[in-house]
Write a structure and sequence with these properties.
With about 190 residues, this protein is mainly α. The chain is built from 7 helices and 2 strands; from the N terminus they run αααααααββ.
Length: about 190
């Protein structure tokens, strides 16, 4: 379980949730430069960091509007679950603690599905926010777009990891090493006497 101190550290490290909170509190506006900056920051993150960043940000939005719609309450619960599922592993990895590669891979396999679910929840709740404040709706749209983009990145990353784990047969043009005491490389199609 992540402590409040670790959660604050994670939020501060990822920065976007702090910007989201400032916009929600009216201390900042969502101008074109801020929109561009949010897109750029989120697109530069790896899928696990992006998931946590979007979940922390969406949780702040859901907490503010949770009594306006049951869907906001659902989004808040899902964000809490995602933060609980990924934050501790992310923090351990960031602090260079020993992390079991099997746990990391098993966790990474769930990221595309969770990003997809988060994008859907954000899109559902976007229409609710169009009335009260267009900045809030635009903020949710940025998070949803980036969540969808990160799904593709996460899927590609997982495919590459799975391919790296599978043994590869040598290509016909690759030399085949023969056991023995000599340093002769046997090429395909040639018979060694």
């Amino acid at each position: 379980m992540l402590s409040d101190k670790d959660l604050a550290k994670l939020t501060n490290t990822l920065q976007v949730p702090l910007i989201v909170q400032d916009i929600l509190d009216g201390e900042a506006t969502l101008g074109p430069d801020v929109q561009y900056g949010l897109h750029e920051i989120l697109s530069d993150y790896q899928p696990d960091s992006a998931l946590l960043c979007i979940a922390l940000s969406a949780r702040k939005i859901a907490a503010k509007f949770q009594y306006n719609s049951p869907n906001m309450g659902i989004m808040k619960m899902e964000c809490d679950r995602m933060i609980a599922d990924y934050a501790e592993l992310w923090m351990n990895h960031a602090e260079d603690k020993n992390v079991d590669d099997n746990v990391v891979f098993d966790t990474l396999e769930q990221i595309p599905e969770d990003l997809e679910a988060l994008a859907e929840l954000l899109e559902i709740n976007m229409s609710l926010l169009r009335g009260p404040n267009k900045d809030f709706a635009a903020l949710v749209e940025i998070l949803a777009v980036q969540a969808r983009a990160q799904v593709l990145i996460a899927d590609t990353f997982i495919d590459i990891m799975e391919q790296d784990d599978q043994p590869q047969a040598p290509l016909a043009s690759e030399p085949v090493l023969q056991a023995g005491n000599d340093n002769i490389i046997q090429f395909p199609g040639t018979v060694r006497a």
